[in-house]
Design a protein that fits this description.
With 337 residues, the chain is α/β, with parallel strands linked by helices. It has a domain at 245-337. It contains 13 helices and twelve strands. It has helices at residues 48-55, 81-90, 99-102, 109-120, 126-139, 145-148, 158-170, 188-205, 216-222, 240-245, 250-257, 303-306, 331-335, and strands at residues 6-17, 20-32, 37-41, 63-71, 74-75, 92-95, 176-180, 208-213, 225-230, 233-239, 312-313, 321-322. The strands form two sheets. The protein has an eight-stranded mixed sheet, sandwiched between helices. It has a four-stranded antiparallel sheet with strand order 2-1-4-5, with helices on one face. Helix 4 (109-120) runs parallel beside helix 7 (158-170), helix 5 (126-139) packs across helix 7 (158-170) and helix 7 packs parallel to helix 8. The longest helix has 18 residues, at 188-205. The two termini are 41 Å apart. The relative contact order is 0.14. The protein binds iron/sulfur cluster. Residues 249-250, 288, 290-291, 294, 296-297, 300, 304, 309, 324-326 line the site of iron/sulfur cluster (SF4).
């Protein structure tokens, strides 16, 4: 079998803060194949954004990563600056939530795309790079692409700016696109358009996409597979169907129950928020980090408090796994939605 575009093995990341090491990601392993979209989902502080940034080696100097990140067959964690330059753009590109700060206010949109093309390949002339920029702006649905190439970021709406950021990210056809909360700052209608655009381009280019989100509604619209993270660790991994129709971790079920939706009559269903606050990474002890918020911890006695659950396979086939001591999630959690 060919190696996946992205293979992460036993990735751990710590930050040194005030002389103390704080673990922000622990023992993470997963594969992402070409043509697939993996959603990485969890509340703020779950480690999802740090994981995404580590693939680009965009972590602050206080961060220390161990394990392995293989991207297009090359190890990222030990790559030198030259290799990193090659990887960024050609093999991996990233789209962030805040399109305004992702763009330079001093350069036209066209000039920024030209820059991305020529940074990757100096042999491309400015004229040829500009032609590619216009083509790319058209591809991401910006009206009058030739005129738009000469305009500046502040002249674009939020949705159009995010389309321009996507054009910059994809102009070199990376093997992997990391989209970190790409629609969070947008209204619902534009959000749906941007998700459809990303999904369409991902299928057309055969890219792998890692979609980082706190929103299960976004995940449901775009993912093939889902990694649920809690307190820096994998809580659950599976196909979109596994995660939505047969969640095996109480945290996954809680996120799902907290997702806004409409009932058959078109009325908004009342939400059930997960009780308590996300576990502080400084406080995560020896047992299950979710225990203080879990409705089932008391039923399992001391075990959840003293023994950390490791990801174990659920079901006979596929790659559905959950890090929970429960063999099955009791139906009442699902029934109480
Ligand atoms: Fe809840 Fe225990 Fe499962 Fe953790 S291991 S999610 S505390 S039942």
């Amino acid at each position: 079998m060919p190696e996946p575009v992205l293979r992460i093995e036993d990735l751990s990341i710590s930050f040194t803060l005030g002389g103390q090491d704080v673990d922000v990601v622990r023992g993470l392993s997963f594969d992402l194949a070409a043509g697939r979209t993996l959603a990485v989902v969890g509340e703020s502080g779950s480690g999802k954004t740090v994981t995404g940034r580590s693939i680009m080696r965009l972590l602050p100097p206080a961060a220390h990563a161990t394990g392995s990140i293989r991207l297009a067959g090359r190890e990222v964690l030990t790559a030198d600056e030259r290799e990193l330059q090659r990887l960024r753009g050609a093999d991996v590109a990233m789209v962030f939530q805040d399109s305004l700060s992702a763009l330079s206010p001093y350069l036209s949109i066209g000039a920024q795309i030209v820059q991305a093309v020529r940074l990757h390949d100096r042999s491309v002339s400015r004229r040829a790079a500009l032609a590619r920029a216009v083509e790319m702006l058209e591809r991401v649905g910006i009206p009058d692409p030739a005129g738009a190439a000469g305009r500046y970021p502040h002249e674009f709406s939020g949705g159009m700016r995010q389309r321009a950021v996507i054009a910059i990210a994809l102009v070199n056809r990376p093997a992997l696109l990391i989209a970190d909360e790409p629609t969070t700052a947008l209204d619902v209608t534009v959000q749906a358009q941007i998700l459809a655009l990303l999904r369409g381009l991902q299928e057309e280019y055969g890219m792998a996409m890692m979609l980082i989100s706190h929103d299960f509604g976004v995940v449901a619209k775009a993912a093939d597979d889902v990694l649920v993270m809690y307190a820096g660790r994998e809580a659950e991994y599976g196909t979109l169907r596994d995660i939505f129709h047969a969640p095996a971790h109480p945290y996954t079920a809680g996120l799902r129950a907290a997702t806004p939706r409409l009932d058959a009559g078109g009325d908004r269903v009342r939400l059930r928020a997960i009780p308590g606050a996300p576990t502080s990474l400084r406080d995560a002890g020896a047992g299950c980090a979710f225990a203080p918020r879990c409705a089932f911890a008391a039923e399992l006695g001391e075990r959840c408090l003293v023994e950390r659950p490791l990801p174990t396979m659920r079901g006979a086939d596929g790659d559905h796994r959950a890090a929970c001591h429960l063999d099955r999630l009791p139906v009442r959690q699902e029934a109480s939605r």
